[in-house]
Write a structure and sequence with these properties.
Elements (H helix, E strand, L loop, with lengths): L1 E6 L2 E4 L4 E9 L1 H5 L3 E7 L6 E7 L4 E3 L7 E6 L4 E6 L8 E10 L5 E5 L3 E6 L1
Parallel strand pairs: 2-11
Antiparallel strand pairs: 1-3, 3-8, 4-5, 4-9, 5-6, 7-8, 9-10, 9-11
């Protein structure tokens, strides 16, 4: 099992910056098998959308609405994931969820999700 805990959400003014973090915990094998980590977000009344993801080797992918403003990074040794958010816009207001895709020791694929952290951008 992999458990994820997010931190760093809050209330920020338009144009401000924020940093979100996600810490993974679990068995040594499951943590070492995490091959992709990322962030999704969900605003009220809207579907959950991909914000950004990063593979174990460092390749990143960003949603079109955040490209150029968000930066995702991960530390494979510490099993942590960070999201630096710059130039916040009101439409960035949402609950942000950390996720991880990983394999069990039986080579079964699983995904884990954090509890979410609220980001609110005030104008």
């Amino acid at each position: 099992q992999v458990q994820l805990v997010e931190s760093g959400g809050g209330l920020v003014q338009v144009g401000g910056s924020l940093s979100l973090s996600c810490a993974a915990s679990g068995s040594t094998f499951s943590l070492s098998s995490i091959y992709v980590m990322g962030w999704y977000r969900q605003a009220p009344g809207k579907p959950r959308e991909l914000v950004a993801s990063v593979l174990y080797g460092g390749d990143t992918n960003y949603g079109p609405s955040v490209k150029g403003r968000f930066t995702i990074s991960r530390d494979n040794e510490k099993h942590t994931l960070d999201l630096q958010i710059n130039n916040l816009l009101p439409e960035d207001t949402a609950v942000y969820y950390c996720y991880a895709d990983w394999y069990s020791d039986l080579r079964e694929k699983y995904d884990s999700w954090g509890q979410g952290t609220q980001v609110t951008v005030s104008s």
